[in-house]
Design goal:
Layout: E1 9-14, E2 17-22, H1 33-48, E3 54-59, E4 63-65, H2 70-74, H3 81-100, E5 105-110, E6 113-115, H4 119-124, E7 127-131, E8 135-137, H5 151-158, H6 161-170, E9 173-175, H7 176-181, E10 187-189, H8 194-206, H9 210-223, H10 228-245, H11 250-259
Parallel strand pairs: 2-3, 3-5, 4-6, 5-7, 6-8, 7-10
Antiparallel strand pairs: 1-2, 8-9
Helix pairs in contact: 1-3, 9-10
The protein binds acetyl coenzyme *A and 4-hydroxy-3-methoxybenzaldehyde.
Length: 276
C-alpha cells in the first residue's frame, strides 16, 4: 500500500504495523502547527486502515520530539489568539482524542530527545519502548513555564507523586533506563534494538483478536476514571458489547477449545484466532 505524503510526518507500513515518524529532524521534531494538522490526518487514516493492526509513533533522526515548537507554536502565536485556538484544537484532537482512544493498539518508540509537550503523545500511546540512549525531560520550568497542555495531568497519571514533582520542579533530564524504572515506558533497550523490539511487541499484539484488544483498551482507559460501582456495571456491559460485536466470536471459540476439545489452555496464550 502506498502511504500518503505529509510535510512533517513520514508514514511507513510493514507487516501490518503502521509507523508514524515525526519528520522535522533538523528541528529535532519539535511540533509546529503544520505537524499538528498532519498528525490529525495521519492518525485518522491509519486508525481506519483495515490492513493495519498496530500503530507506532517515533521520530526521525536523533530525536523523538523536542516538545512544542517554541518559535512557531509559542512566540509566533502569543499575540494571535484565533490562530492559537485553531492549533490547540488540532493538538488536542490528535494527541488526546485520536491517539489516546485510537481503536488499534499504539506503541511509542522513544528513539532520542523527548521533552515537555512530547510527554502527551508518549503517554497517550498504550505501550512505550525507549532507547537506553533516549533523553527525557520536563524542561518547561527551565524556560519559565509550567508543563501545560495535558502534560502535567498525564505525568500525574503515569508517574508517582514524588517522581512527578521531582522532574516537574527540577527540569532535570533522565535516560531510557530511568524512564523504564519510573514506569513512563514499559522497557528500555539499546537504540540498535529499538525497531526489532517494537516489531516483536507488535507480533505479540497481532496474536490477539483485534476486537477484543479494542474493547480491553477502551475499558481500561474509561474505567480508571469511574468509581467502583460504575466501573463494575460498565465492564459487564462492555464485555456483552464485545461478545455481540466480535465478528470472529473469539470468546466462544476459546471456551470450546478449552472445555470441549481440550486442545488449548487460555492461561498460556491466545488460542490462534485464525485456525478453525
Ligand atoms: N522548538 C523550536 N525549535 C527547536 C526546538 C523546539 N522545541 N527544539 C529544537 N529546535 C531547533 C533549534 O532551534 C535548532 O534550529 P536551527 O537549526 O534553525 O537553529 C534546531 O532545532 C537544532 O537544535 P539544537 O539546539 O542546535 O540541537 P542539539 O542537538 O544541540 O540539542 C535539544 C537538541 C537538546 C533537543 C535542544 O534543541 C533543545 O533543548 N530543544 C528544546 C527542548 C525543549 O525544552 N522543548 C520544549 C519543551 S516544553 C513544551 O513542549 C511546552
Ligand atoms: C505544553 C504547554 C502548552 C501547550 C501544550 O508544556 C503543551 C507543554 C503552555 O501551553 O498548549
Amino acid at each position: 500500500m502506498t502511504a500518503k505524503e505529509y510535510a512533517t510526518v513520514k508514514v511507513e507500513i510493514e507487516d501490518r504495523v503502521g509507523w508514524m515518524i515525526l519528520n522535522r529532524p533538523e528541528k529535532r521534531n519539535a511540533m509546529n502547527p503544520q505537524m499538528h494538522y498532519d498528525m490529525e490526518d495521519v492518525i485518522n487514516h491509519l486508525s481506519l486502515d483495515p490492513d493495519i493492526d498496530v500503530i507506532v509513533l517515533t521520530g526521525a533522526g536523533e530525536s523523538f520530539c523536542a516538545g512544542m515548537d517554541l518559535k512557531e507554536y509559542f512566540r509566533a502565536l502569543d499575540n494571535d489568539p484565533a490562530e492559537q485556538i485553531k492549533v490547540r484544537w488540532s493538538m488536542r484532537n490528535w494527541q488526546y482524542f485520536r491517539l489516546r482512544m485510537c481503536p488499534k493498539t499504539t506503541i511509542a518508540a522513544i528513539n532520542g530527545w523527548c521533552f515537555g509537550g512530547a510527554f502527551t503523545p508518549l503517554i497517550s500511546c498504550d505501550l512505550a519502548i525507549a532507547a537506553d540512549e533516549a533523553v527525557f525531560g520536563l524542561s518547561e520550568v527551565n524556560w519559565g513555564i509550567l508543563p501545560g497542555g495535558y502534560v502535567t495531568r498525564d505525568v500525574a497519571m503515569v508517574m508517582n507523586y514524588r517522581d512527578a514533582l521531582y522532574y516537574i520542579l527540577t527540569g532535570k533530564t533522565f535516560d531510557g533506563k530511568k524512564a523504564a524504572e519510573l514506569g513512563l515506558v514499559n522497557e528500555s533497550v539499546p537504540l540498535s534494538d529499538l525497531r526489532s523490539t517494537v516489531m516483536s511487541l507488535a507480533e505479540d499484539i497481532k496474536k490477539i483478536n483485534p476486537e477484543t484488544l479494542k474493547h480491553a483498551k477502551e475499558a481500561f482507559k474509561m474505567s480508571r476514571d469511574m468509581d467502583y460501582d460504575q466501573s463494575f456495571d460498565y465492564l459487564a456491559a462492555k464485555n456483552d458489547q464485545l461478545r455481540f460485536r466480535d465478528p470472529q466470536g473469539a470468546r466462544d471459540k476459546g471456551i470450546k477449545k478449552f472445555i470441549d476439545d481440550k486442545t488449548y489452555r487460555p492461561g498460556l496464550g491466545a488460542f490462534g484466532q485464525d485456525e478453525e
